[in-house]
Task: structure prediction
Amino acid sequence: MLGTAGGPGAAEEPGGDRGGGRLRDGESYGFATEQVHAGEQPEPGTGARITPVYLSAGFEFDDFDQASARFVDTQSGYSYTRVGNPTNAAVERKLARLDHGASAVLLASGQAATAIAALAIVQAGDHIVCSSSVYEGTKGLFQSNLTRLGVSVDLVADPSDLGEWERLITPRTRMLFGESIPNPRNDVLDVPAVAEIAHRHGLPLVVDNTIATPFLFRPLDHGADIVTYSTSKLLTGHGASLGGAVVVGRGFDWWADAERFPQFAAPAGGVSGPSWIGAYGSDAVGAYLRDAVAMRFGPTQSPWHAFLLNQGLETLSLRMSRHVESALAVAQWLESRPEVVGVDYAGLSSNAHHGTAERLLPRGAGSVFAFTVDGGIDAARRFYNAVELFSRMTHIGDVRSLILHPATTIHVQQTPEQRRSAGISDGMLRLSIGLEDPADLIRDLERGFAALA
Result:
């Protein structure tokens, strides 16, 4: 069926949360130690310390019986990179451990990660309740593409209104979705509270944790059931590659209601044999997501991009600490400027979501936020064109600081009324704070304000 480590192999090769390398199973380690060592194993024969890049489309079998065993999952190993690759598997193990998950799957982009997570859960006739603060590409995927497949979607206009989340749930709802730190508004999601609502109705909560990363926040520890990432952003950090990931937790009882999630009770072999639940137990959903959805739709992450992701993960805690420290300094400075109408950063004590951020994000509220200048789109244009150190890019989470005008780029397909409803004003500018000296960033932003004078 799979042609790689499926039943017994899925827990041992792709995904899985074994420490590998120098980490003992079941022993607790600090985040910085895990980001360096988790998932990695010495290279047999050479002793190479760094996980190699296995740029091979397929893997040779020893004999006739081994080929068959790989495809019927009686022997762990690899057959084809679309299904599993040693480079990817090492990084998947690391991500699963960093997020306290059962398993992880690497994909070609963050958009692919969201799509595969949704497609593993919903089918025609099902319903999704989604925060209105999520990335516009996610809204488009849900409201345009999934609706064409017969899946309906309702957006929670005010994600902080827990009653609205509950009111939108119907008998056909199969999934709740939100972002831990949305951009550009920074309206931090109360994940434990939304998870409690989801679980009371027997539903999973899926959280996009791209901006927070597991260093700032682990959604699975706070009640979420599946976590998605655009690894192109802060997890990789250097802006040199694309990628996505899905991390599956252990806590949700997917098999409590076979009528609600019939796919997991179906035979894992496609025709006969044990169900996904019977074959994979607590990681049935992770195995199904990998083998029945990602493998068939095919958005595989290249081993080269997995290697680049691994290089970024090794310094994640160091980079994130600097990102959030600098972001707070820049946000506080912007808040003091008379030309600024408002700063949407939950790290500020004046922000409406500061209390939630303090409770869930003690290490910091991320490094991506927005501020609004007085004077509308003309003022935003002058400011945007005046900066020199900030890169004008549609990207976030880079070591370089970035700036973008949301209303005319990522939100340009919305009507003016929709943008106003989402809090996206003509004078809003989004910043992604990098690793430069904060004083230099502030001096560059002063050029923008000078252009408004």
